[in-house]
Each structure stands twice: as C-alpha cells, then as structure tokens.
Design goal:
151 residues; alpha+beta; four-stranded antiparallel sheet; 3 helices
Length: 151
C-alpha cells in the first residue's frame, strides 16, 4: 500500500479546516453585533439626555424663557453642539395647534401645552460596513426625543 491511499483515509486536521472556513463568518457576526449594540447605546444616551432636559422643564415655571435654556441643557447632557438640539413648545386649543405659546384659548375651549426636545447626533460605526440608512460619509444619524404635556 502506497502513501496516497493512507493519506486519503487520514482524518486528522479536518476540524482545523472546518474552523478556518467558519471563523470569518462567526467573526463577522460578532463584529456586527458589537457595532449594533454600540449604536443602540448611543441612541439610548441621546434619549436619556432629552428626558433629562424635559425633567428640568417639569421643575421650573412654564414659560418660553425656561424652554429656551433647555437647548443648552440637552446639548450639555448629550455632548453635542446646541445646534443639534431642537426644542419645540406649542399650545393646542381644541386640538388645533396655535402659533403663540404664551396666549390663552378662548373661553370654553379645551387647551393643552406641549414640549418636545429632540437631539440629533451622527454615529460612526467601528467598521465601515454600510447598511440601509447610512449617510454618504458612512455615518448614521441618531435621534433621541422626549416630550411632555406641561399644562
């Protein structure tokens, strides 16, 4: 019997070959999970920063001067530029949005005042795999939003 038939029946090393074939797939899954979890954590951080600024509004008086300071509060909590924070407050009379927050509804109408804070930040994944929703530069736009009825 020659060495070739013995080599064909030899099964030593097959598990190493199987592992070499499966390892890139498993590594890609692990890297993707880490990237997705970091992105989710960044989005959660933005939502918590927006909620913290909403809590500030709950403690103070219901006025536009306080609400204007929420932009700075939200930006500081999220670690972003104040231009990335949008604070929106409005009055609704019988469900219709009014342009002036400080006015009152006419007698007999139901009224409600609302406040929302939205913080936007770009997230850059560790690895440059582009999936649906990616920006042209490979980043993803994350938004954290919180809202409350103040009156």
């Amino acid at each position: 019997m020659g060495p070739l038939p013995l080599l064909a029946r030899d099964e030593r090393g097959t598990s190493a070959i199987e592992m070499a074939l499966a390892l890139p797939i498993l590594a890609g899954l692990l890297i993707g999970m880490v990237d997705m979890s970091l992105g989710f954590a960044a989005k959660l951080h933005l939502e918590q920063a927006a909620q913290r600024s909403i809590e500030k509004a709950m403690q103070g008086t219901k006025s536009t001067t306080l609400y204007d300071t929420l932009k700075v509060e939200g930006a500081a909590a999220a670690g972003v530029n104040p231009s990335a924070v949008v604070v929106d407050y409005w009055l609704e009379c019988n469900g219709a949005r009014k342009s002036d927050f400080e006015t009152n509804c006419t007698a007999g109408q139901s009224y409600a005042r609302y406040l929302t804070v939205e913080i936007t930040k770009a997230y850059t994944p560790m690895f440059s795999a582009r999936f649906a929703g990616a920006n042209a530069d490979g980043t993803y736009t994350l938004r954290g939003r919180a809202g409350i009825r103040v009156q």
